[in-house]
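Quick one, T. Sequence first:
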Amino acid sequence: DKMELIPESEYDARIAEQEREESSLEHLYLRAGWKNLDQQTDGFCWAYSTGHCAMLLRTRNNQPHVRLNPHAVASIIKNGRNEGGWCGLSGKFLRENGIPTEEFWRPGSRDLSQNTPAMRANAALHKVAEDWYDLAKPVHGQVLTERQADTSVLNNNPCAIDLMWWAHSVCYLRKVKIEDGSYGRLILNSWKDWGRRGLAILRGSKAIPDGAISLRMLTASTV
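Structure tokens:
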């Protein structure tokens, strides 16, 4: 279905409402108290960006907190190789297969012996049920406009965004006002002890996504 874009003239009011009500994904994340995921030494940021989105959706929807493991997603897709990718690639996997918890796949591991029926059953509990994703485009060509990405987070739907200047993929979770007429994009990164609990603001050209998908809903799992 078509995304109904929020007019830019409403951004200030929407941002102020989230701040006043402490209802943004940033507020929910900080209040919930869980720590950002760590991709460690592998180049799997493109799976961690969507994994963080999935965890934020669970927090938003008051589902029990679980540590999802994007290393499983990337390892299976890449057959155990340490290779880069795109958020659209991991997003497709989450839609079709889901993502397991750390209980069923060890953090930082690419050991494919963990790809068991029990792991796959656990992953299926955490599938993406709704997202903004263009089925007509390849996984490396998934792009939301800036206004689509901003509309998503203003509606508390996190976005996975690829940034070519950084050769990196992160989770975009909040539009922030810097000053009158100037805005930034708050991201959640997948590096340990980075930023403020993984959070930092990108501005200007560095905040413009080269690829992006928006996650809206996960399956209603209680585990």
